[in-house]
Amino acid sequence: MKITYLGHSCLLIEGSKKKVIIDPFISENSNCSVNYKDIEVDAVLLTHAHADHFGDSLHIAKQNDCPIFAVYELAAYCSSQGAKVVEMNVGGTFKEDGIFIRYTQAFHSSSLFVDGQFVYMGQPCGIVLEMDGKTLYHAGDTSLFSDMKMIGDLHPIDVAALPIGDVYTMGPEDALIAAEWLHAKQVIPVHYNTFPPITQDAGKFARDLKEKDITGLPLQIGDVMQI
């Protein structure tokens, strides 16, 4: 499994058979120089509907003629905008062509600003993704919650993408606890330093993880890792 960090909470994941992107906030992220028109994937996976995660989902799905995976209400909205979708919900799984996707709990909110007002887009989620015998857990935007222990017990997590920005999600202290509960071998910090309120020291977070015998990976935009 090859993982490319595209900033904020966006990960591009490539296996031997499939290539997917999670939360493609690209064109509106001033820190990211990638052009969404260059993204080639087999699916778009969304944790929730906020603009800094929904991002370029519709454009990428349409240009690749591929589906958007999302919780039911958000999937219905994407379908209404002309995109192919796979409707998911919390606890549901998708298994096909060597890929496994499970939608998990996340504690946050989820809406899109449509026609001058916020529209509810279903429950926010985390995503467990398995390809080529490797497992990635993307927590989405969430607080710390005790059922992360169950997620870690159910899935041998090779790498977890955990938000550390605080204010809108859990901060680094809670993310340290989450990493332990998940039994994660490696952790990619996400959802930090994109906007002033979520400025964090990812290097310190990685050092704190090391004290718990967990590898922290504070990736720069465009960095690639292999697991």
General description of the model:
The chain starts with a strand and ends with a strand. 21% of the residues lie in helices and 30% in strands. It has a single domain (2-223), classed as 4-Layer Sandwich (Metallo-beta-lactamase, Chain A). With 227 residues, it is an alpha/beta fold. It has six helices and 16 strands. The model has no long low-confidence stretch (mean pLDDT 97). Helix 5 (172-181) packs parallel to helix 6. It is globular, with a radius of gyration of 16 Å. The strands form three sheets. It has a seven-stranded mixed beta sheet with strand order 6-5-4-3-2-1-16. It has a seven-stranded mixed beta sheet with strand order 7-8-11-12-13-14-15.
What are the defining features of this structure?
30% strand; seven-stranded mixed β-sheet; 21% helix; 6 helices
